[in-house]
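Hello again,

I reread your note about wanting to compare the complex against the isolated chains. To keep things tidy I'm splitting this into two emails, and this first one only covers the full assembly. Below are the input lines as submitted, including protein chains and any nucleic acid or small-molecule components. They are followed by the predicted structure of everything together. The single-chain runs will come separately.
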Amino acid sequence: MWPTLWLLRIEVFYFMDILMDYICAFVTGGVLCVIAQILIDKTKLTPARILVLYVVSGVVLTAVGLYEHVVKFGGTGATVPLTGFGYSLCKGVFKAVDEYGFRGIFTGGLENVATGIVMAIVFALIASFVTKPKSKSR
Amino acid sequence: MESDNLTKLDDKKYEWMQKKRNQKSSLLKNCVMAFLFGGGFCVIAQGYKHFITSGIGVKFLGELDEAAVSAHVALFMVFLGALLTALNVYDDIGKHAGAGSVVPITGFANSVVSPAMEFRSEGHILGVGAQMFVVAGPVIVYGTFASVIVGLIYYLVSRG
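Full-complex prediction:
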């Protein structure tokens, strides 16, 4: 009986761990979005400017070493918002500079985010062929 | 005295107060919606990450290191955002979610796919091909530029 209970306890702990991952992702992602929402509502920044601001601040925060902690806490909650795009740009550059030296400065960033960008481009082209053109009045 | 105060509170002032109150409540409401939707997208991503790192997912993709996992998650989220945009669902989500639909990488996918669909009537080159990057272009340009600067500093520091 006791071994079974012991195993069950491990199972419960494992489950709690996973649940904690989800909660941390939810909260971190939510907070990043709320900051953007406040910026949109309170200042006259357009969403496009917010996106640029987020990516650049993601790069800078990663370079300073702060964003690593956010990623450790939030998991996908930190990597999915656009600050995470900057995070992976910056990580890519660091890794490529270590690996290739000077050339790495120019290849590292885009190489790391290319998966997402290429996926978006391919899908956008296919979607523009497949879907019916929308009426021009937005 | 009281009636005096009441008359002072004329229509214009009342309207202004009402407007201010609405603004406040709408900011709160927007923030709550942004929090819920933004967090929701991240939870979906976390679910996909869980899927590819345990159980059935490993059989398809094999054991992945950390960078590969985050690349796969980004790939999936971009795909999800693009699919929802192509199905005309994402705009409806965006009406409620506000920044919650802009900031996650699904919003980046939306900003690429949405103009591509919309400007099809202006041709494939200057319509679809050019308008695709109307929002994503600046993001990539400034992001890349920032990463090059950071890389240059890192290069100099690690050499010097």
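For quick reference: Chain B touches chain A through 72 residues (CB under 8 Å).

B.
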